[in-house]
Specification:
Layout (H helix, E strand, L loop, with lengths): L57 E6 L3 E7 L4 E8 L9 E6 L8 E7 L5 E6 L7 E3 L10 E4 L5 E8 L14 E7 L14 E6 L8 E4 H19 L1
Antiparallel strand pairs: 1-2, 2-3, 3-9, 4-5, 4-10, 5-6, 6-7, 8-9, 10-11, 11-12
């Protein structure tokens, strides 16, 4: 693929006016607050980590700690997204991609690909495993906010939107786990060439009723090593 808790409420203070602010917690670390509600009437769950990126509600680390997907449902039919590539974990250049796949495989899939430096963010369809099978498409829209942004800390963020039931191979759902594929250039080249081992898969419910998960290519290698060890143990 060119484009791999909330705590119990703090008690009110005893005595005095009941509308006084609650006292600060006494000692020790407290659990992180739940994600803020998105700015829409679309009901969401609390199964996802809160986003650290202003303007977004939830996030998932696709590849820890340097590739992060952020999103916020802005209506019952639209989700705004951003993929943040930390400067320490990427080459200065290249591209980032996120795809929607009915089988969780590279092909067939719908994808959004953005160049890290001064490039466009565009929708594509992936029809096979050759470069000729990666084709730009107008069959689904990714919104007027599609852009590449470089921050003051030299991180790269690509932004775009997805819309309910849009897509070619995988209709975008607002509710329920959906299979994602992701990849990024590990060479720094803007050319949409082979991504090497910089890829993985994820499962995300953009309404956050279910917890998201991501698995990078090296996780698959670890599983293969474990399976080989198990097989060798059985043969002994």
């Amino acid at each position: 693929l060119p484009p791999r808790g909330a705590t119990d409420p703090l008690p009110l203070p005893t005595g005095g006016a009941t509308d006084s602010p609650p006292p600060p917690p006494s000692g020790g670390a407290t659990a992180a607050p739940p994600p803020p509600p998105p700015p829409s009437s679309f009901a969401t769950g609390r199964a996802c980590p809160a986003s650290t990126l202003p303007g977004y509600a939830f996030q998932l680390a696709l590849r820890r700690p340097n590739l992060i997907l952020h999103w916020v449902p802005v209506s019952a039919t639209q989700v705004d997204m951003a993929i943040e590539a930390k400067a320490a974990g990427r080459a200065k250049g290249g591209w980032i991609s996120l795809g929607w796949s009915p089988k969780g495989k590279m092909s067939p899939a719908d994808a959004v690909i953005g160049n890290m430096v001064g490039g466009l963010v565009m929708p594509y369809v992936i029809k096979g495993y050759k470069m000729s099978k990666l084709q730009p498409t107008s069959a689904f829209k990714i919104g007027d906010n599609a852009a590449t942004v470089t921050t003051a800390t030299n991180d790269t963020i690509i932004t775009f939107s997805r819309y309910k039931n849009s897509g070619v191979y995988a209709r975008f759902p607002m509710v329920g786990l959906t299979k994602l594929i992701w990849a990024f250039s590990n060479s720094g080249s803007p050319s949409l060439a082979f991504h090497g081992d910089s890829y993985g898969t994820a499962k995300v419910d953009f309404s956050c009723r279910y917890a998201p998960s991501s698995k990078a290519e090296e996780d698959y290698e670890d599983e293969d090593d474990d399976n080989n060890d198990d097989n060798q143990t059985r043969r002994k």
